[in-house]
Each structure stands twice: as structure tokens, then as C-alpha cells.
Specification:
Elements: H1 8-15, H2 20-32, H3 34-52, H4 62-75, H5 78-87, H6 96-116, H7 133-146
Helix pairs in contact: 1-3, 2-3
Length: 152
């Protein structure tokens, strides 16, 4: 038999949902396969823990208190219920998560602008890079003189 330790059949065996011959085949495989044996033991521990679990007793007046609280909430004005939802959320930290993300993005953007913004936005032409028109004209005349006449 192929190893079934990753199969739903093994979990069904642990839950006791398999029939006689099929369960016997699985039991024989579990006796030989160490991986499947570990899975069965772990599942057995889970089932034993679930069997030991007891639910707590519910108070006798639980329903009456619940319905009274619901009636009290519904009798409040509409605007007060919405104000409570906005200013007293069920998870107060959740309201700050978007604010932290926006603040982090703004900080990164501010740092990026501070680093990438040049201090002098308009470049100035310095005198040593100035071009002398006569020098350019002389260079073009010399180039024309050196060019072979066949190219003309």
C-alpha cells in the first residue's frame, strides 16, 4: 500500500469514520509506517483533548440580560449609535493602522524630496566653458580644407 500519511483517509481513520476491512488495512499500514503512526498519535491526542473539554455553564438570566441590552442600544438616538461606532471602535488599534501607513509614506516622500532636490535649480554657464565663435569658425575652415575634394 502506498503511504497515506498525507491523505484524508488517514484522518477519517483517526476520527473512526472508516468501515471494518478498510480500517483494518489502515491499521496494518500504521503499524509499519512511522510517519503515519506519528500522525495517528497526534490526531489521537487532539481527539482526547476534545473529549476532555467541557463547556462553561451559561447563567440562567443570560438571555434576559442580552435582550435588555439590545433594547437599550436600539432605544438610543441614531446619531449617538454612530458616534459610538466612530469614537469607540471595537478594536481601537485598527483605527491607527492607516494613519501610521500614511505617516510613513509621507516621511519617505519628504526625505526623497529633500535628497533629490538640487540646491541651485538653474545651472549657470561658467566663463571657462564659454564658446568663442571665432575659434569655431576657424576650426570649421580647417576641417573644410582637410576634406578631400572628391567628397564635394
Amino acid at each position: 500500500m502506498d503511504c497515506i500519511h498525507k491523505n484524508d483517509v488517514l484522518l477519517a481513520y483517526c476520527a473512526g469514520r472508516l468501515g471494518g476491512t478498510h480500517a483494518a488495512e489502515i491499521a496494518g499500514h500504521v503499524a509499519e509506517c512511522a510517519d503515519c503512526r506519528r500522525t495517528v498519535e497526534a490526531q489521537g491526542e487532539v481527539w482526547r483533548a476534545l473529549d476532555r473539554f467541557t463547556t462553561p455553564e451559561v447563567a440562567a438570566d443570560f438571555d434576559a440580560r442580552l435582550y435588555a441590552r439590545i433594547a437599550q442600544e436600539e432605544s438610543e438616538p441614531f446619531w449617538r449609535r454612530w458616534a459610538r461606532r466612530i469614537f469607540q471602535p471595537a478594536v481601537p488599534v485598527a483605527m491607527w493602522k492607516p494613519a501610521v501607513s500614511v505617516a510613513a509614506a509621507a516621511a519617505v516622500l519628504a526625505i526623497g524630496l529633500a535628497v533629490r532636490t538640487p540646491s541651485d535649480p538653474v545651472p549657470q554657464v561658467r566663463a571657462e566653458h564659454a564658446v568663442d565663435i571665432e575659434t569655431v569658425a576657424n576650426a570649421l575652415d580647417d576641417l573644410e580644407m582637410l576634406t578631400p575634394s572628391s567628397a564635394m
